[in-house]
Amino acid sequence: MGCCNRRCGLIAGAVVGALVAILGGILFPVGDIIIQGTVETEAVIEPGTTAYENWVAAGAKVYRQFWLFDVMNPLEVLEYGATPAVVERGPYTYMTRYLARDNITFHLNHTVTFLLPNGAIFEPSMSVGTEDDKITSLNLAVAGAYSAIPTELHSIVETLIKTTNSSLFQRRTVKELLFGYTDPILRGDVGFFLDYNQTYDGPYDVFTGKDDIAKVGKIDMWKGSRSLGFWNDEYCDKLNGTDASSFPPFVNKKEPLFFFSSDICRSVSASYESTMNLKGIDVYRYSLHPSTLASPLDNPDNKCFCSNMKTTKNCTLAGVLDISTCQEGRPVYISLPHFLHGSPSLRTDVIGLNPHEEHHKTFLDVEPTTGFTLNFAKRIQVNMMYGPSKVITVLKKVKDYTIFPLVWLNETATLDDETAEMFKKELISRIQMLDIIQQNRFQRALQPRWRRGSKEPERRCRFQPG
């Protein structure tokens, strides 16, 4: 601004150490804290920076809570074609994402490749029962074979069901349903999240921010490709945004945030909902827009996500996403819990579902200066489809295609009280101090100074635009 601002910026240098000290421990940080160019060096993801040392670690604890749908009337459905009635059982809680990033490799194009190890440790104190609790659920092998095997060969499915004494529903333990059991029909292991403890998500390639800090954390490739290849469409196959653990700094609430989720095999966006107070920290709450899973009639952009005209009622069904193309042909459908924002028919085809916006929506609480996600709840429901058959006995009473709920999960993480206090002390308070100092300096500069023995004020500074 001129000569009166000669000390401006010194305070920014003084807070660098305090700022970068908190980069770890807040939801898989990737180094998004930037106050102009002062912190950019430490925010880049590269060996030697504070951001890297904390980014490579596991970060805050992430929990997955599972609610499984227990079928109350399996015999009535089989013998009389009754509408299935379910009751949710849960939560059964597991700690996940506790393992550090693996196979980290840097590239010349300012990206870094890594794997995210999957792991799940049961937390009895946060669960309603044990992993040995039994649930009556849909038989995954029967539903899968119904869709995977052509109709003209359904007699084979019928033979397999009879010889193995299987049925449309089965009773299994929570652990079996979630993480796998040996199925007599397939003679192999199946489960909602089969072998989760022994798998990886990725590899991911993300931008380090070395050449452009506005790209830090954004995904360049997933599994070696810049396109998903699931949807046979450029728009739907686009990798867009980050992994949602953080975003580039200085978030503009007027613009949506984009992120990719491998759980649903697509990129989505979240819109600003409100400003919240999280343990004394102002955060922007972002949530998925209801149009995310809307039918193509209401959201034409979703046309490329509709691949099965029969099960989606000519692409008019809202609230579900057929991800069979990324599940090796298995008839898996993703939705929000209890078919929130879904077509009414989804909730009349299965009795016992009660969607609630507050309990079942997905949201992110993002600190706008740093871009860190300080609190989130990712809520997803896993469903499978089955339908009528003239050959398969256990399906002869089924009247129409049914998208049946298996389980819904709530993946959550939040900063703890200690980290929140550190965040407020080392970041928020110092930014406020910087503002106060700048305001005071500006006010003093406007006050006239008098020369000794003079009646006229001395002009000590000349202000220039910008």
Automatic annotation (TrEMBL):
Lineage: superkingdom: Eukaryota
One GO term (biological process): long-chain fatty acid import into cell
Reactions mediated catalytically: tetracosanoate(out) = tetracosanoate(in); (9Z,12Z)-octadecadienoate(out) = (9Z,12Z)-octadecadienoate(in); butanoate(out) = butanoate(in); hexadecanoate(out) = hexadecanoate(in)
Subcellular location: Apical cell membrane; Cell membrane; Golgi apparatus; Membrane raft
One Gene Ontology term, aspect cellular component: apical plasma membrane
Residue stretches spanning the membrane: 7-28
Example of a GO MF term: low-density lipoprotein particle receptor activity
Topology in the lipid bilayer: Multi-pass membrane protein
Principal location listed in the UniProt entry: membrane
Disulfide links within the chain: 236-304, 265-326, 306-315
Keywords on record: Cell adhesion, Cell membrane, Disulfide bond, Glycoprotein, Golgi apparatus, Isopeptide bond, Lipid transport, Lipoprotein, Membrane, Palmitate, Receptor, Transmembrane, Transmembrane helix, Transport, Ubl conjugation
Family: Belongs to the CD36 family.
Name by which UniProt lists this protein: Platelet glycoprotein 4
Annotated organism of origin: Xiphophorus maculatus
